[in-house]
Amino acid sequence: MKSAIVLAAGKGTRMKSTLCKVMHPVANKPMIGHIVSALKAADVNHIVVVVGHGAEDVKEYLKDEVQYATQMSQLGTGHAVMQASALEGLDGDTIVLNGDGPCIQKETILKAFDANKDHALTVISANLAHGGSYGRIVRDESSHVKKIVEAKDCTKEEYALTEINTGLYVFKNKQLFEGLKEIKNDNAQKEYYLTDLVEIFNRKGWSTNAMIVDEPDETMGVNDRCDLAKAETWMRNHINEQHMKNGVHLIDPSNTYIDADVEIESDTTIYPNVVIQGNSKIGAHCEILSNSFLRNAVIGDDVIIDSSKIVESQVDAHSTVGPMSHLRNQTHVHENCRIGNFVEFKNTDFGNGSKCAHLTYLGDSTFGKNINVGCGVVTVNYDGKNKFRTTVKDGAFIGSNCNLVAPVTIGENALLAAGSTITNSVDDGDMGIARARQSVIQGYGTKYKNK
Ligand code: UD1
Ligand code: CA
How far is CA 350 from CA 246, 298, 313, 398, in A? Predict the structure, then answer.
């Protein structure tokens, strides 16, 4: 059985924030969220998160995806693990992770479990140019891992060591809880250090091991805003590389901002300065042009999106959106549609083959198939108190500069004359016209000019 304990009770004083550290976002997702996703991807489904500072925020975010243990006062990483006593007595291996290491990937988690097969404890270490504030891995003459010493507790020689503790460990679960009983707080910070377990295990004759990671940046710990920015850069690069490996064409990856859970099919091209957030899904052979912003958007194949904003909405295959259009609140544009320039749709269902090419607002409306919406059309959906729906049926033609005062229904193949303010429904095949009849005053133009 594989379990995990994630340490997330600390305040993160160095972040200088009212938000607890593990809730700070990297690539628009809380650090703790990245860690839980990586664990689940590695099939570690039995996860205990130790919460303290910001416990309510963490629980509200992770909901019942994990189990929780509470650490009332933050007496150190060893003390934090003691709170996960729900795991005590279980067989199998347990991975312990600092909640402030957001970049960890499933492959490294799997490797770590593997490395601990024949050991009681494996610490995941990294070789850095400078050890900085990380705990140092001290090895004996035969290069076996002897102990971990916190930077603050190091001798001069120890401080010079460059192999560091990444804050990730795999333990034989039963021995983990046995060993925890022997941790003391006689150190520079008067804390119960989890890292003391290496020495304790060695003393007990339990086999200890260290696994050096290939890419130290993946296991970086975030302690302040500078670290947060480094993690952000690493994560965005990593996400973009995955997409490129999957066949997505990113013209300028360093200026492309894609969240971790976004899915994109191959042969889609993404231009510079595009932001794609949340659970957005984008089909194949799309073009997402510069300055587009998508959040929780579902986009079909062969769609072109030009400098537009699409939030909580869907655009189906072969449609084009933009330039400068805004689709929001559960809008659904079906196949082969053309939306924009300068068009806003809110909570609107827009049927196959319909077009709305210029300067229009459609809100709370249902448009059928093959409808042409002229330039400057407005659904008047709000009377200052309530919202009302507009329905337009298949094949209708909405002339330019019409107002559709909802609630109103326009029938199949109906026609609205340009410039009409429509307050009553129009039946199938009929025409609605609502404007003053034009009169012509002969010669008045010339007369006015010569005045
Ligand atoms: C820790 C390690 C250090 C390692 C580094 C890697 C210890 C003693 N030191 O140091 O060897 O190089 O991580 O990044 O473990 N936490 C709690 N409760 C507590 C204290 C901390 O839940 O009482 C949580 C924090 O929220 C954080 C994590 O544990 O997510 C690590 O704590 P932090 O104070 O950042 O440890 P470091 O000083 O970075
Ligand atoms: Ca840390």
Answer: 31, 15, 12, 14
Mean pLDDT of the 56-67 span: 98
- Does 223 contact ligand 1 (Cβ within 6 A)? yes
**Smallest Cα–Cα separation from 206: which of 167, 235, 174?**
174
Report the nearest atom of ligand 1 relative to the CA of 52.
Answer: 22
Q: Whose CA is nearest to atom 31 of ligand 1?
A: 98
Let me know: does 275 contact 294? Beta carbons within 8 Å. yes
The whole-number pLDDT of residue 188 equals: 87
The answer to whether residues 250 and 270 touch, using CB atoms and an 8 Å cutoff, is yes
pTM for this model (two decimals): 0.94
CA–CA separation, 308 vs 291, rounded Å?
Answer: 7
H or E, element range at 244:
helix 225-245
Q: Is 358 a catalytic residue?
A: yes
Average pLDDT, the chain: 97
Q: Give the domains, in start order, of the chain with CATH numbers.
A: 2-219 (3.90.550.10), 249-432 (2.160.10.10)
Q: Is the CB of 277 under 6 A from ligand 1?
A: no
